[in-house]
Amino acid sequence: MEDIHQLIKRWLQKDEKAFEQVFYYYYPRLYRYAFRYLKNEFWAEELSMEVLTRVWERRSAITHAETFENYLFTAARNHLINHWQRKIDSLLSLETLPADAADAPGRYDPILSKELETFYHNSLSDLPPQRRLIFLLHRNDHLSYNEIALKLKISPKTVENHIGAALKQLRVAMLQYLASVIL
């Protein structure tokens, strides 16, 4: 096989057939990289294909063959981060998530890692007691803001503020955790 940098240079010079070899050179590496974090063959394949497709579409942004690999794996890392951000948003969504995702492993989201779920539950315990109570009353008991306000003898606006702050704190903690794992 020709030197990979020469292939990339040919591809950047509009030799589209060279991309096929570039694809076969990088696809297994991207797949292993994605699988390491996703622990799911299907999603690792999807992510690898999506990254290579995006690189193909944005090839005009690539100016040097020597930096192609950095560009490619930075794109893969960004796709992973976006993937996990969507998972975190899904995990924190009060409207769509069962009361306790740990009770239904794989039912709601088959690729949601146990590690992330564990971290989420640990992060819940880091919330201030009043905020955690309000968050769990809303999430687990499905009480409305007004019902929680009546039960705790506080205003609905206070309930709203606590839930908003809890979601923000949980989202930040989980993103920091994922960043430490991925980066």
Automatic annotation (TrEMBL):
Record key words, sorted: Sigma factor, Transcription, Transcription regulation
Family according to the record: Belongs to the sigma-70 factor family. ECF subfamily.
One GO biological process term: DNA-templated transcription initiation
Domain of life of the source: Bacteria
Originating organism: Dinghuibacter silviterrae
Domain RNA polymerase sigma factor 70 region 4 type stretches: 123-170
GO molecular function: DNA binding; sigma factor activity
Protein's name in the database: RNA polymerase sigma-70 factor (ECF subfamily)
RNA polymerase sigma-70 region domain boundaries: 25-87
A Pfam family recorded for this sequence: Sigma70_r2
Coiled coil: none
Cross-referenced PANTHER family: RNA POLYMERASE ECF-TYPE SIGMA FACTO, RNA POLYMERASE SIGMA-70 FACTOR ECF SUBFAMILY
NCBIfam families: Sig70_bacteroi1 (TIGR02985), sigma70-ECF (TIGR02937)
